[in-house]
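Sorry, I am new here, but would you mind making up a protein's amino acid sequence and the tokens describing how it folds?
***
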Amino acid sequence: MKNIRLIALVFNAALAVITQSGGGQNVAWAEQNQMLFKVSKTEFTATGDVKLPFLELKASVRNDGSEQTDCNYGISFSTKPFTPLFPVTVKAGLLSAGGSLSRLNSPELSKSISAFGSTSVRLKELEASLPSESSFTKPPSVFVQAAAGTKKLNFGVSSFYDGETVTADATFKLEPFKALEISANLTGGFFPYKQNSRNTWFNEQGFYHQGGHICANGEFFVKIGGFSSVFTLGLYESPQGKYEKTYRSENIIKFTNFSFHFNSFYNRFDAIITSSGKTLSPLLQLEAGGQYKYKTQGKNPATVTTGFNSQLQINLNSDEHNAVAAGGFKVNGRFLSGSLTANADIGLKQQMDGIKVDFEGAGLKGALGFSIKDFRTQVSASASVTPAEKKESFYFSEKLGITFNYTNFVELSSSNTLSLSQKKEKKYSFSSSLSAKAQFRFCSLRVRLEFQV
């Protein structure tokens, strides 16, 4: 089996070389078959990572065949091994911030829903991670976090600075026993915004120059048995000096293998400017759904999940609204996995004689995967349909993915994806990546080559 996997990896590497440097013969062969293979992207990435109990160093370089080479770096130091009750963490480099800052940037619910919604809700704290091998555009930044207490009672503060803005965060957690957990978080900072367009003189916000404003949100989390709830209050200063609020609620109830969630978001203000500079229109979102999980018995048990999710989006300054729904089931087993999901998009227009319902579109997607040890293959197909008056009334796509892994001191892996789509004309794309990772006691080195046709 190892020899077979090794042969597959060698074949994949040869395919990459042939595709990129096949010369005139390959081009002539492609033209004869009415298909010209042209490499649209070639990328080489190398990542080094050193991990110690109290220190981590990480750096990556990337080259796409041009004269310019991108690089990123990051360092993390923690006193947790020495002061477990009062840990302090310091990170620096091209960091990626998230957690409660992401919620502050986009307080609304995601308009893209899945048939299998989240089965848990948690309080979000200010976070920052060292750069990944695909992150090269972040500015240099510093993150500091300090905490005190135990698992049952904990208090922490943190701050993130990226050369332009400072974000601060404070978190309190109380867990007197397993069935009860209470926590609260406050995140805020001073963020810039750009000048708006001059054609907005007669809008509620009016014209304003670039400047800065205060943005903050407070989160409250409670968990009692199988019930979990997070309430978020957002506060955003307008260019006119007024403070405008948003409200968000996420709730989940679990009963053994069944879970039900209900989420909502409300904003009544026109053109709220968030900490990322995006604007929010008056909006009410209501989302509800549930899923059921069942585990089969036998020598090779599998988990069967069925789910349904729906969301209603009411635009408070417009007569046009939207409703989306998704449902499906999936199976995850030792060797086989599969899923089938469907979604529908409905337009709602408020008129004098009632509400007009318009069909906006629907989709169906199926996937089937097979895996054995270090080999995995997956096939998926999707179809979507829209009304005849739309530009695209029917769309169909297929995807085939094959992944190999080979481990013998050095971990080798290869991922290959062939995609086909049919709209007005057929389109093909192929992407392949080959990576090697050497793991030592305190450090690792990973190189990766990727190309797309």
Residues 2-21 form the longest helix (20 residues). The helical segments are 2-21, 23-32, 100-105.
